[in-house]
Write a structure and sequence with these properties.
Layout lengths: L5 H8 L12 E2 L5 E3 L6 E6 L6 E4 L14 H7 L22 E5 L5 H8 L3 E6 L2 H11 L4 E3 L2 H11 L3 E7 L8 H11 E12 L6 H7 L10 E2 L2 H10 L3 E8 L4 H18 L7 H11 L1 H9 L3 E7 L7
Parallel strand pairs: 5-6, 5-8, 6-7, 8-9
Antiparallel strand pairs: 1-3, 2-3, 3-4, 4-10, 9-12, 11-12
The protein binds zinc ion (ZN).
Amino acid sequence: MVERTMNEIRESDDSVTCAGCAAKARADVPAHVHRAPHNQRTYTLQRCPNCELQFWWPLQADPSVYEGEGFEAYVDYHTGKRPFPRWAEPLFAALPPHRGRALDIGCGDGAVLHRLAQIGYEPHGIDLDEKSIAVAREKFHLANVSVSTLDAFEHASGLRGEQFDLVTFFEVLEHQDAPLAFLAQVQRLCRPGGIVAGSVPNRDRFLARFDRRLGDGDLPPHHFLWFSRAALVRLFERAGFTNVDVTTTGALPYRQIVAKLAALFERRLRRVASLRWLVLPCKVLAPALAVVPWIGMRLAPSHLFFRCTAPATKPS
Ligand SMILES: [Zn+2]
């Protein structure tokens, strides 16, 4: 693909409509451009003045991202040693006494479904990643998990007349290139009045910029949508959900921040011969340095947890 000039980017972005509300969106000025190493495409960040959603243009998911082990974040799932996702914890705080059937879209290694099964839900899950599904079956003995797209699963569920009392999707919505169509599918799978819950990264989290400099996981073609609390509430309300509640979650415990800082120093400073002597002093200082991120993560946690009610009538 030929690199576009800044003028070309601005001209093409004049016609961009918001993925969340169809209003006219605007590119950042100066433009915030990302050239993705994964597919060599150039993306520009857009802001919607109407619903506050930020999204990357061109808004077009790249399925090759989910193939193989190309993206390091998914390798973690394959080992079966991934810790329970801390951003899923709020789900278990207030579930109704009637349990029923639960569907986890993008269930990964099945950790969330396993906990739902322990409290009485009948667990069902889909994921695009074959190795993660293998872990879910072997480690958590989950029978109703499969490698499937949401389209194929919805079609099969429709034929069987299946509905779910709880539909969850953690770290899935930010990957979508058509979020309203995705949420309409969720509605069709959820029973009227059922619970929908999950999480997305908090775009206003502490050290978000630093985080994005360390890796490209929060950038396209991985993540296309960047949410604030207000943008997330508006998207769900526009999609027809009610009782939309969004809270921040995912702050790391102090000892994990210390461990991460120590690992970061080790990784970064060891690379540069003239800085290697700094590794040990920095590691010794890590417990003191961790106080700042610990406070920052409590003021602006890493994730937004959402929970809402599916509407009483189904979309067509
Ligand atoms: Zn919008």
